[in-house]
Design goal:
- With about 375 residues, this protein is an alpha/beta fold.
- The chain is built from ten helices and 17 strands.
- The strands form two sheets. It has an eleven-stranded mixed sheet with strand order 1-2-11-10-9-8-7-6-3-4-5.
Length: about 375
C-alpha cells in the first residue's frame, strides 16, 4: 500500500476508516456524551465548559432532550455520528441509549463510531448489540511501547472477537515517534483495522502542560504543535502494515470538516434575508432603534422592503434585515446599523460586526 496525501496535509496508507468518510463532507454529527474521564491526559484539549463535567453536546449545542440530538442531526444532514467525550464509557447506559435512539430514527445505515480509553469487553459487546459500528481506542501514552505486556493487550484480544470494527486513535506527539511506531507494529499483527493519528493542538486548557513538556507552537496563526504533522506523515510514509494508517491534520478538521458541516447546517436554517458565506457562516443586516414597530412599518411602506426580508428579534432588541437592503438604505434611517457575520449554530455566535454610518459610508 502506498501513501496518499489528502486535503490540507492529511495522509493515508490503506483505506480511509469508515467512520471518517462522512467527516469531510460535514455529514457526521459529533455527540459529546460526557466530559467525565479517568485518563487525565496532559494533552487533553477540552474546554473548561466540558472537561471533567457531566454534560452532553450535539456539535456545539447543549443537549437537554433526545429531540435536541435528533434535530441537530437533521439540520446538518448527518449520515452518521461520532460519539466522544471525556470518555463515553463513563456513562455506558446513556451511550447505549443514544446509539439506540440514532439507529431507530435514522436507520441501520446511520454509521456510528465511538472514541474511548476504556478497554472493557463487556461494554463493547453491549455497544455492538445496540448497533455501534466502530470503536476507536485511545491507550495512555505510557503503554504505547510495550503494549503487549500490559493488561490492555489481553482485553484487546477479547474485544477483537466481537463483531465490530476496531481501530486506535492517538495524537501524534512530536517526541514519541518511536513509541507510536512500536504501538502500530504490535496492534497491526492483532487484526486492528486502522489507526488514526491526530495533529496535536494547543488549547486554553492544555497549553501549559504542552509547554512544560517542551512542545512549541508552530509559527504563524496555527495553534498546532511544531513537529506533530511531520512525524505523523513520516510514520504513514515509512510503515508498511496490513491495517490502514491515517493522519488527520488540524487544518483539515477546521478548514474542511467543520466548514462543510457549518455550510450544511446553514443551508437548512438560513432565512430569506441571510446570505451563506463560503465558510458556512451567515451574513445579515441588523438595526437598533427606539421604536422598532414604527421603523418596520417605515421600511415596508417607504422603502418597499418585503416581509420575508425583515424580522424583529425581541430577544436581542433589534431588527434583522437583508444585508443587501441595509447597505442601500442605512444612510436614510438615522439608526445604528451593522452587517454581522454569525455561525449557523444553535447560539448564533457572532464572528464579526461591521458598522454602517448614517451617511452611508463604512467605518
Amino acid at each position: 500500500m502506498n501513501m496518499n496525501m489528502l486535503e490540507r496535509g492529511s495522509a493515508l496508507r490503506g483505506e480511509l476508516p469508515e467512520g471518517c468518510k462522512l467527516c469531510g463532507p460535514g455529514r457526521k454529527m459529533v455527540l459529546f456524551v460526557t466530559g467525565l474521564c479517568d485518563s487525565n491526559c496532559f494533552y487533553c484539549p477540552l474546554s473548561e465548559h466540558k472537561k471533567n463535567l457531566d454534560v452532553v453536546y450535539a456539535d456545539e449545542m447543549p443537549v437537554n432532550s433526545d429531540e435536541d440530538i435528533l434535530e441537530e442531526a437533521r439540520l446538518i444532514g448527518a449520515g452518521g455520528t461520532g460519539i466522544t467525550g471525556g470518555d463515553p464509557l463513563k456513562k455506558p447506559e446513556r451511550t447505549i441509549h443514544y446509539i439506540t435512539l440514532l439507529k431507530e430514527n435514522f436507520g441501520k445505515g446511520h454509521h456510528i463510531h465511538l472514541y474511548t480509553a476504556t478497554f472493557n469487553p463487556d461494554h463493547v459487546r453491549r455497544l455492538a448489540d445496540a448497533g455501534l459500528d466502530e470503536i476507536r481506542f485511545h491507550p495512555p501514552p505510557e503503554t504505547w511501547k510495550g503494549f503487549e505486556k500490559t493488561p490492555l493487550n489481553e482485553k484487546l484480544k477479547e474485544i477483537l472477537e466481537i463483531p465490530i470494527d476496531v481501530g486506535f486513535e492517538i495524537p501524534a506527539l512530536p517526541d514519541m515517534k518511536s513509541e507510536i511506531r512500536a504501538l502500530i507494529g504490535h496492534i497491526d499483527g492483532m487484526g486492528v483495522k486502522f489507526i488514526n493519528l491526530n495533529e496535536l493542538e494547543f488549547s486554553d486548557t492544555n497549553y501549559r502542560a504542552l509547554l512544560e513538556r517542551g512542545y512549541h507552537m508552530r509559527e504563524g496563526l496555527s495553534s498546532t504543535a511544531e513537529g506533530s504533522a511531520e512525524i505523523a506523515v513520516n510514520i504513514v510514509k515509512e510503515m508498511e502494515t496490513d491495517m490502514s494508517i491515517h493522519f488527520c491534520s488540524a487544518s483539515f478538521k477546521d478548514g474542511v470538516q467543520l466548514r462543510n458541516r457549518l455550510r450544511n447546517r446553514a443551508e437548512n436554517i438560513a432565512k430569506p434575508y441571510e446570505l451563506i458565506t463560503d465558510d458556512g457562516t451567515l451574513l445579515k443586516g441588523i438595526i437598533y432603534c427606539d421604536e422598532p414597530d414604527g421603523l418596520i412599518n417605515r421600511l415596508k411602506n417607504e422603502f418597499d422592503v418585503p416581509d420575508e426580508l425583515l424580522f424583529r428579534d425581541p430577544e436581542r432588541s433589534r431588527i434583522e434585515i437583508a444585508p443587501w437592503v441595509i447597505e442601500e438604505i442605512h444612510g436614510e434611517l438615522g439608526c445604528d446599523s451593522y452587517i454581522v457575520e454569525e455561525y449557523p449554530t444553535w447560539d448564533r455566535l457572532e464572528v464579526e460586526r461591521m458598522p454602517l454610518d448614517y451617511g452611508g459610508d463604512e467605518k
